Here is the input.
Amino acid sequence: MRKLFFANWKTYLSDTEAETLARSYAERAAAVSADLAIAPGFTALEGVARALEGSSVALGAQDAFWNDEGAHTGEVTPKQLAAIGARFVIVGHSERRALGETDELIARKAAAVAADGMTPVLCVGETAEERDASSQERVVQAQLEAVLGSWTDAPFVVAYEPRWAIGTGRPCEPKDVEAMHAFIRSKLEERNLTARVLYGGSVDPSNLMTYLAVPNVDGVLIGGASTKPAEVLAMLDLLAS
Ligand code: PGA
Here is the structure.
């Protein structure tokens, strides 16, 4: 299976910057031997969708509400995202868990995203304290179970992102990534589920190929480096060679 390079642009770019950068992904996509996806901020979705038209780069969103029906001021529904052309939606990113999102809410979001025909990208990962206490597997297992406990056959992606490695420039040791990805894979297999499992957290041009070579790593979820034009070009060049 081709690796997935998933760019999470968070709140880093203006809409104009997002459209310009999306065009450079689109121009290079054909030369890259990986699947590319971009999740811009909500306000940039339409412009980025236009910039990606005709290319193989998939559009994603960074979050979604858990219900398509009714009146929910300030929310963006999966139905609205599907209509704009999104194919992936991140659920349970640690920056949202930090704002109080629970496993139960994340499970509802994942189900709602899948019900509208999109692929949820479920983020899981432990805090620094949890790793220091060697409880990372217990934490990740609980996060997986909450969402996949009653999952049937809709496609989904898992992103393992140790919370202490996100946006910190302090990447996870490849041997620790390997151990956790093997653990996640075994949990999926127990449930007869197949999914791509991505690694995320301070991935950049200097470590991209190292992570992609780790067993059971099916791609990467990249924040900061995926928004910096020079680093993007460097990473796409590496994927082209
Ligand atoms: P980072 O973010 O690459 O800036 O660490 C990863 C993420 O999107 O969670």
Notes: Residues 8, 161, 166-167, 200-203, 221-225 surround 2-phosphoglycolic acid (CB under 6 Å). The longest strand covers residues 119-124.
